[in-house]
Amino acid sequence: MGLNSLIYPLEYEDLRLHTDPEITLDIDGIDEAANPDTGFAGIIGRSSGLRRVLQMVETVARGDSTVLLLGETGTGKELLARAIHRHSPRRDRPFVKLNCAAIPTGLLESELFGHERGAFTGAITQKIGRVEVADQGSLFLDEIGDIPLELQPKLLRVLQEREFERLGSTRTKKIDVRVVAATHRDLEGMILKGEFRSDLYYRLNVFPISIPPLRERPEDIPLLVEHFVQESARRLNKMIDAVSSDTMAALTDYQWPGNIRELENVIERAVILSRSSVLRVPHRDLQSRVAAGNSSEKLETLADVEREHIRAVLKQTRWVLSGTGGAAARLGMNRSTLYFRMKKLGIVRPCS
């Protein structure tokens, strides 16, 4: 096929997956294959930031320590939790997940710990909770920052004493489970506000892993684009041979506030709308995404949006960059990255 400089050819061979010899016994019954670039299923990228994270994942997976995954929404925390399980001695045991933000508060205790028949109105049968199902395996608690205060002591007991009781029962059950938790929230800030227990935080924070947002690893975007194009094209029965070079440039330059999940959605929409073998994403689609999250019509560029957002956070923190309440932590980046962005965007502290 004759491909010129206007298109970005898809290297399907580079994206081909092979069978992972370590099959995960997943509670959802999903077996995943390893990606040849990283050795981890579904995790695409070659950036130094991602490789640093995967090195930490590989190291902690060998033991049994509790892991806390920190990162913005859409950065792939569940994939990393599965990777920890798959590379651990528990790989042949269940991997059980629970999104603490997706279940109503009144039902969350029963989902976690189970209940006995008659424990409450409507409890007509006994229920086994996720903690008990995950015995001998791994329990992934997504959005741990959303767990209600009244349930936090019970979860702390699971982590500390390895025991619990079903709702409506007086019988203590011992449990052997590895907990991997994840959040996009500032747990230390929540502790200061009385919204999260400090003792639970320290039990969860044994081995924290901070996941860089997609905007901090732009070199991974072309690989992710190719992967999502391939997956969407196969699922939608479309033939996409390449991505236009201007589209790839626009996708790489965009800041992706929704991270990998947002990128996947943009690519799927573009594949659905595509009428040729060369994929193009109209620039107005990305521009409208910036405008949608911006109430001020005078901000016209991504740089303007980013500059004003950083300035607003700096004003809130009184220009304190470091520390748990500093601007860097609130923006989800380290201090050196924030300093670099400030310098690039021409942000200077005003004279007092």
In terms of topology, how is this protein built?
Blueprint: E1 7-9, H1 12-15, H2 48-61, E2 67-70, H3 77-86, E3 95-99, H4 105-113, E4 114-115, E5 127-128, H5 130-133, E6 138-142, H6 152-161, E7 163-164, E8 173-174, E9 178-183, H7 187-192, H8 198-204, E10 207-210, H9 221-236, E11 242-244, H10 245-253, H11 259-273, E12 278-279, H12 283-292, H13 302-316, H14 327-331, H15 335-345
Parallel strand pairs: 2-9, 2-10, 3-6, 6-9, 11-12
Antiparallel strand pairs: 1-11, 4-5, 7-8
Helix pairs in contact: 2-3, 6-8, 9-11
So what's the overall shape?
globular
Average per-residue pLDDT, rounded, comes to 83
Biggest β-sheet: strands ordered side by side in the sheet:
3-6-9-2-10
- Tell me roughly what share of residues is in helical segments: 40-55%
CATH level 1 name of the largest domain: Alpha Beta
In N-to-C order, the SSE pattern is: EHHEHEHEEHEHEEEHHEHEHHEHHHH
Q: End-to-end distance, in Å?
A: 63 Å
Count of spatially separate domains: 3
Which structural class fits the helix and strand makeup?
alpha/beta
Proportion of strand residues: 5-15%
CATH topology of the largest domain: Rossmann fold
Structural overview:
The structure is a single chain. The protein has a five-stranded parallel beta sheet with strand order 3-6-9-2-10. A three-stranded mixed beta sheet has the order 1-11-12. The N and C termini lie far apart (63 Å). The N terminus is likely disordered. It is α/β, with parallel strands linked by helices. The chain folds into three domains: 163 residues, P-loop containing nucleotide triphosphate hydrolases (Rossmann fold), CATH 3.40.50.300; 79 residues, Helicase, Ruva Protein, domain 3 (Orthogonal Bundle); 44 residues, Arc Repressor Mutant, subunit A (Orthogonal Bundle). Helices cover 41% and strands 11% of the residues. The longest helix has 16 residues.
